[in-house]
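User: Some background: our group keeps a shared notebook of sequences we're curious about, and every so often someone picks one and asks for a predicted structure to add to the entry. Today it's my turn. The entry only has the sequence so far, pasted here. Could you supply the structure so I can complete it?
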Amino acid sequence: MAGRRPVPDHRRELRAPADPHVGGRPHPAGEAVGASGSGPATAQRQGDRPSGFHRAARTLSLSRSAVSRHVRKREKTLGLPVVEREGRGTRFTPEGRRLLEQARRILAVHDEAVRTPLKSDGDTVTVGTTEHAADQFLPRLTAAVQEVRPGCRVRFRIDRSARLVEAVERGSVDVAVYVTEAAATEGTPVGGLPLTWHAVPGWEPPPAPAAVPLVAVEDPCAIRRRAISTLAAQGVPATVVGDAGYLAGVLDIAPTGQGVALLAAVGPAPDGLTPYGGLPAVTPIPMSALARPGADPATVEAAFPAVRDLLR
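Assistant: Of course. Here's the predicted structure to add to the notebook entry:
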């Protein structure tokens, strides 16, 4: 090939506000079944979808600069640009398109390799849910599935909403329950997840005009945004004093008394915490359920009502 074209700098094109609805970074359990990871090949594939690198960053829970680094790494390896400017945005070069097709084939082989061991397990159903109220969703989903498929083995996946939807669409999760506004796919509405402020017993916020200290999953997170916007609408200043990558981190910080956390209000209160009624009430956050294409209709018909019963 005669000469190398200059490698473009994508940093300008990748500046955009973070999506306010997708919660946290990948939960470690998210890699358990059918996850494709967040490496350069996945970034390459995600970049071809609507909204390009912006969506890739949201879906993979990476910063836009991280996605850009993945792309530049590929370009450095190839010695060729894989994206180029088009107006105010970017598009794939012919070389980038060829690399994209290779990435798709690699990921398809990976996903099939992950699913293959499951096929030897006999009748297996994989259900997924967000961390929020997972301890309430999963037992009900398991019971519902096993009622219509006796002897079925139920596998679990806990992950962020956007990644759950992608796993369902890819076929590695059979049924998933997720926060509606945290994913691009609406799914079937199954009700609203009630949310309540929780703090250590006896906790009180500092006197006004001091800001209310919050403990929350790091941004972008739908429930974090709901907490801040609810307080702001009532003129209550707030500041996040405890950031956590996952809900488990919130449940570690809040019992130390550092602040108040907005949590799902189904089932018993988490250890060391109790509902706190001294702040404005928060409206339930809509939840959706989604089944993979070709899923057993009896399984779907059993699973969705089980979630609705919990969220009534």
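Suggested note for the entry: The CA atoms of residues 117 and 245 lie 30 Å apart. The first strand starts at residue 83 and ends at 86.
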